[in-house]
């Protein structure tokens, strides 16, 4: 599974918005890998930020 897919899956399964550190902890990915994956997901609109520094999957 690609890092972007794994990050998106973690966000979809979470009941609440998560920050990058928590996503890295849950997914087991390195924080830098998570940051890069999130940048890609933000660019294509797959994730949204309901509050500063916290992210959730777009509906």
Radius of gyration: 10 Å
Examine the secondary-structure arrangement and name the CATH architecture.
Orthogonal Bundle
Q: Can you write the helix and strand succession as a string? A: HHHEE
Indicate the CATH topology. Answer: Arc Repressor Mutant, subunit A
Percent strand equals 15-25%
How many structural domains can be distinguished in the coordinates? Answer: 1
Tally of DSSP helical segments: 3
Give the neighbour order of strands across the main sheet: 1-2
Pfam families: HTH_11
Organism: Candidatus Gallipaludibacter merdavium
Domain Helix-turn-helix type: 5-47
Protein name: HTH domain-containing protein
How would you sum up this structure, described in words?
The chain is α+β, with helices and mostly antiparallel strands and 59 residues long. The protein has a two-stranded antiparallel sheet with strand order 1-2. Strand 1 (47-51) and strand 2 (54-57) form a beta hairpin. The radius of gyration is 10 Å and the shape is globular. Helix content is 54%, strand content 15%. The mean pLDDT is 96. The longest helix has 13 residues, at 31-43. The chain is built from 3 helices and 2 strands; from the N terminus they run H-H-H-E-E. Helix 1 (3-13) packs across helix 2 (20-27), helix 1 packs across helix 3 (31-43) and helix 2 (20-27) packs across helix 3 (31-43). The protein has one domain (3-57): Arc Repressor Mutant, subunit A. It comes from Candidatus Gallipaludibacter merdavium. This is HTH domain-containing protein. Residues 5-47 form the Helix-turn-helix type domain.
């Amino acid at each position: 599974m690609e890092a972007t897919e794994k990050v998106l899956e973690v966000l979809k399964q979470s009941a609440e918005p998560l920050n990058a550190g928590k996503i890295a902890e849950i997914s087991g990915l390195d924080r830098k890998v998570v940051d890069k994956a999130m940048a890609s997901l933000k660019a294509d609109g797959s994730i949204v930020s309901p509050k500063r520094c916290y992210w959730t999957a777009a509906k």
